[in-house]
Amino acid sequence: MTAAEETATSFTGTVTYGGTAGITGTSAAFVDGVLTIVTITPQNIGNGVSFTVVDDESHTGSTTFNVRNLFDSWSGNGEGNGTITFEEDANNDGVAEGLAWLLGATTPSENASTRLPLAGENTGDLVVDFDCLKSSQHGTATLHFEYSNNLALGSWTSIVVPESSNTVNGVLFTVTPIPDSDMNQIQATVPASQANGEGKMFGRLRGNMP
Q1: Contacting residues for 193 by C-beta, under 8 A, at least 6 apart
Q2: For residues 131 and 20, what is the distance between their CA atoms, to the nearest angstrom?
Q3: 61: exposed, middle or buried (Cβ count in 10 Å: 0-12, 13-18, 19+)
Q4: What are the boundaries of each domain within the chain?
Q5: With a threshold of 0.90, does the pTM exceed it?
Q6: CB burial class (10 A; 0-12, 13-18, 19+) of residue 56?
Q7: Can you tell me the distance from the alpha carbon of 28 to that of 22, in angstroms, rounded to the nearest whole number?
């Protein structure tokens, strides 16, 4: 067996998607060296994914691990403790776990209702403030800001929250990165022109995992 083959067969475990990342939550037992960084992309998510690895003596081989998406890593899915789905409200706090994660909840057991947006009014505009994960921390999942002036089914306008300040479909998003944090502060402003005849507007947030 060559050194490369030894490297290729000496690692099993789980890694988490997040751009270029080191191996987490397990250990390697290389005969000829240590595992270096591998590149993980959204297309890699799944079980039994093959990667090329290189040890510290430049021996190259391939190995296979299970790759979790960022939500599964946060929720503990794949660690033998059951599966929490993105749309599930596992702790009965009234907030789906996927939305709780996007809003920065530290664990699925946290009461995420305190992270729901605060709404106010400014000269007739609807102003909604909330925090959300930066795009580097939520992968392919998206957070949607939605507004309506009558609450009827099908009347909601849905907009993916942008990563930087921008006006999208008439809604002004002011995005402020929180220093030394995985979070952005968001303020969404819906113009008063979108209100109904009584001057009312409604806003909400929705998470989506493709």
Answers
A1: none
A2: 25
A3: buried
A4: 3-68, 117-208
A5: no
A6: exposed
A7: 12
Give me the residues paired with residue 190 across strands: 126
Residue 65 half-sphere exposure, CB side, CA atoms within 13 Å? 28
CATH architecture for residues 117-208: Sandwich (2.60)
Contact predicate 153/201, CB 8 Å: no
Q: Give the sheet arrangement for strand 202-208, strand by strand.
A: 157-160, 142-148, 202-208
Dihedrals phi, psi of 94, to nearest 5 degrees: 85, 5
Distance of CA 39 to the CA centre of its chain: 18
Among all chains, which residue has been given the structure tokens 């305190």?
Answer: 114
The overall average pLDDT reported for the chain is 79
pLDDT confidence bin for 144, thresholds 50/70/90: very high
User: Which amino acid, 201?
Assistant: M
Token pair recorded at residue 140: 């392919």
